[in-house]
Amino acid sequence: MASPKKKLQGLVAATITPMTEHGEINFSVIGRYVDYLVEEQGVKNVFVNGTTGEGLSLSISERCRVAEEWVTKGRNKLDQIVIHVGALSLKESQELAQHAAEIGADGIAVIAPFFLKPWNKDVLINFLKEVAAAAPALPFYYYHIPALTGVKIRAEELLDGIQDKIPSFQGLKFSDTDLLDFGQCVDQNRQRQFAFLFGVDEQLLSALVMGATGAVGSTYNYLGKKTKQMLEAFERKDFSSALNHQFCIQRFINFVVKLGFGVSQTKAIMTLVSGIPMGPPRLPLQKASREFTDNAEAKLKSLDFLSCTDLKDGNMEACS
């Protein structure tokens, strides 16, 4: 991979980890998965082993193998492959970071440790610094997801002076609904050229207005094309059209959230839309119910999302 590495931007799919019915990783479909993202969804960046990828439910050796498979199968097809290397153990996180560098990944991301938690900014930065130092040549991203980690340190506070401590710091994945915090991350770091990657898919348009430079999310696996239409409308300053696209995406997300929407359901939807078997999740998660999948399929059809690959902008009656 070329050096120096470029910053992550645009749409990034938070990848699912395909599994067999017995809960083993199904490495054999990752090549098809890469082709589907690129050819059918127009998405060329991936975020591997994160929340959607059940990264923290995998063993260290499994995480390494998944990362290797994405880098191998994505070569000359994907633009950026960022590996999430966060773990409760600093040593494991460093090992994963080093491995990501060795296999030629384009960047690494880390969440805050969430069992024995860092309770202030300095302690969290010390942890992140040690992980980043294990792969100093790779762009480093902080993965801010307080609802899952319970670590409530504001991202804006964390970013203040962070590059002095972590020279490879390039930006953050901001998976929270606090647009004040997100806006201040952007506002106070304008001269630093950080990547501001928003992680709440149903609110992406709001974040774009606030200065987001990209987005990482699970729905871009199967709604990538639709979301790209929103990004293109935003870029050409057609805000009315961008808003229609966002509302259309929201209608689907709002529907599935009411049914109970998480990693298990994302796997079921992706299997349905892509035809690639994603399998069940790993315990403690439970497989999505047949009823959920049937309801989600009906909603996707009513919004014309299931035939999105053949549709052009002017033919989205269901969502215009």
UniProtKB/TrEMBL annotation:
It comes from the Eukaryota. Belongs to the DapA family. NanA subfamily. The active site is at residues 143, 173. SUPFAM superfamilies: Aldolase. It is an enzyme of class 4 (lyase). Keywords: Carbohydrate metabolism, Cytoplasm, Lyase, Schiff base. InterPro entries: Aldolase_TIM, DapA-like, NanA. Gene3D superfamilies: Aldolase class I. It catalyses: aceneuramate = aldehydo-N-acetyl-D-mannosamine + pyruvate. GO terms for biological process: carbohydrate metabolic process; N-acetylneuraminate catabolic process. This is N-acetylneuraminate lyase. Pyruvate binds at residues 52, 216. The keyword Cytoplasm applies. GO terms for molecular function: identical protein binding; N-acetylneuraminate lyase activity. One of its GO terms (cellular component) is cytoplasm. Homotetramer. Its EC number is 4.1.3.3. It is found in: Cytoplasm.
